[in-house]
Amino acid sequence: EVDVIKVDPKNTSKIGKEKYTKIKGLSVHYCAAYVINRRGMGFVD
Q1: What DSSP designation does 24 have?
Q2: pTM given for the model
């Protein structure tokens, strides 16, 4: 079984680009997915 949590994807590319591309060394798209994952876990960026 897998739980599905709906997350608002608003501004995830922008946040990912500004906060995580240099730290993680990943593309903007991967970092946007990272931000979506963090939102699903309850973190606020």
Answers
A1: H
A2: 0.88
